[in-house]
Amino acid sequence: LDLSNCSLHSVPPGLAEATAAIVLDLTENPLTTLPNGSFLGFIHLQSLAVPLTLECPGGSDAWQDVTVDGSSRLCQGQRNPCNSSVGLAWPCPENSVCAPDGPGLVQCLCDNPFHGYKCLREGTFPMLLFGGILGTATVSLSLLLWGTQRRKAKTP
């Protein structure tokens, strides 16, 4: 994805839809900052060129190779922060695993069959029970309202 020399003063909002990008060029733009989360979901990004005034997103630890070439900084080889030897592995709650979510970003995904807040609930959502109670309540309330309100309806 070549966005070089596009006179960008900030990261375009549509960039979030380009998470499948492997190579991204933002050089020769008057960018001042890269907001946190600008590259959320960019797990396939392997080469990123930014103006020299900016650092690589996630810092130099998020990339295997950071080089300066003229007026640009080239960030290559996105590292997996979950199995990094730079620091401790990312602390995910019990019953979950760490997964990369962009340069220097991680997410914790629940192991099967756990779900919910901090992956504390086990099993699946009780759809049949929920649907049964909701359906019964809806039909009962509808019949009650139909029975009490039909006498107020005018007949022609």
UniProtKB/TrEMBL annotation:
Listed transmembrane segments: 125-146
Keywords of this entry: Membrane, Transmembrane, Transmembrane helix
Keyword Membrane: yes
Single Gene Ontology BP annotation: positive regulation of osteoblast differentiation
Protein name: ARAID factor
Keyword flag Cell wall biogenesis/degradation: no
Originating organism: Eulacestoma nigropectus
Chain's gene name: Atraid
InterPro entries, alphabetized: ATRAID, EGF, LRR_dom_sf
Alphabetized PANTHER family for the sequence: ALL-TRANS RETINOIC ACID-INDUCED DIFFERENTIATION FACTOR
SUPFAM superfamilies per the UniProt record, alphabetical: L domain-like
Domain EGF-like: 108-119
